[in-house]
Amino acid sequence: HIAEDTSDLLQHVKFQSSNFENILTWDSGPESAPDTVYSVQYKTYGETEWQAKEGCQRITRKSCNLTMETGNLTDLYYARVTAIDAGGRSATKMTDRFSSLQHTIIKPPDVTCIPKARSIQMIVHPTYTPIHTGNGHRLTLEDIFQDLFYHLKLHINHTYQMHLGGKQREFEFFGLTPDTEFLGTIVSSVPTWSKESAPYVCRAKTLPDQTWT
Amino acid sequence: DGVAALPAPQNLSVQSTNMKHVLTWSPVVVPEEIIHYSVEYQGEYESLYMSHIWIPSSWCSPTQGPECDITDDITATVPYSLRVRATLDSLTSAWSTLKHPFNRNSTVLTPPGMEITKDGFHLIIKLEDLGPQFEFFVAYWKREPGAKEHVKMVRRGGIPVHLETMEPGAAHCVKVRTFVKAIRRHSAFSQTECVKVQGETLPL
Amino acid sequence: LKTLHLGSCMITSSLQAIQSGFSEIQDRQPKDEIIDLRILRKTQPLQDTKPAGQCCLLHHVLRLYLDRVFKNYQTPDHRILQKISGLANSFLTIKKDLWLCHVHMACPCGEEAMEKYSQLMSHFKELQPPAAVVKALGELDILLSWMEEMD
To answer: Helix C15-26 and helix C78-103: axis angle, to 10°?
Structure first.
């Protein structure tokens, strides 16, 4: 009996994770029909049983949110998808080993830029993740990554930059010219895991200087 | 079998400055012939645990020039043994091995180049870009008796960065040195440069 | 640079450089097909070991990697060989620092550390040598994350 090659039903099964929101995604194969259905299972690395993911059994969409199921930061996980087409053909493919600490991407921080006459204040807001502690407390990125820090740049007429950085949340660029537009970029950086977010960008115009009016 | 017909390269030595390491040797000369060389290395781990293993260098197996940039091969702060041999068609020389293993913590760290400018009252510094292994330790102060020295760590060179907002009429001075985390060493300080608002860079 | 606090032993290491070296080969290694078994298990992590024994446990785990993992890793790919060499020599640097702690009586081997290490070795020995080497190398990210937490 020669097993039929059904690998064309399913491809690119992988986790896509940002700020610990872990989404399993896949693509249909070049030959698969629109009515193909997909079922998802997941397991913890080192354990034997696969668990069926409720809500992602015999679905037609090509993604499944496994955030809750893969939320333990000290564990590593695998997931697999089984595709079954109308003709009863099926194919199963598995992800690589997934570690949310290692693989999650950090989104740009949420920042409020407050222009004043001769300075611009930047306040970074905490970034909450879906990860909870035992007592239900929701963890922020700063809670999870002890060495997370913010790196701020203020670009001054395209010739030079002012730099500030640190773990605190409030920063202020001083010594600016009133009534002038500036471009600020703020990134979150985690040296330990060589992670750096895309920049949050804010444009701010310093206020006119009222002191001399 | 023709192995000893080709002389082995001589005078192997490593020149290392600012974490760029280059192995050089005296070329083997055979009139009207092009000689190729192969470079291999052993870290302390290989020499201790698997001494028969030599690893081909990233860029010079083979190479034509009598030198090899081994920077990408020296990735740990341990002694590395290095060897070179010459080849000409099917002829291969014996290996020549560097007399003393090379450790990157012996690299020469030069004071970094810096460019001091000002924009209005802003004092701006642009540092030489020496690559990701280098951080810059910038010291700056107002030139007056008892002035406090301020310090700023600049992560990367190559970008003009605002250092401080100066006070009119006072000279502000700057000096800088590099720090290399991988070998936990820093360079000597650069020359001090001073700038006065509404004035030109002052000689020391 | 990361400072690792291992009881009364304190060392600094560039874990970030090691992590990025490992990331470069992670996708090019033979895949660990045995996913029902894990060598570095949650029950023996470094950070849950009493501080006094942490240095000893790490020293033994590094010795496992130096003696039996990097040494027995076979690959025809020079690029991977170069990266493995970088990892092995970086681990050797850390092991030498831990040895200095041992010399200065700051790396005692208590019962707990030795018990955890023997459990870990039993997981390693459950596998055929080639499979154990592939699995242990694949679990370097686990070891590095254990070490990351030692600050």
So the answer is: 150
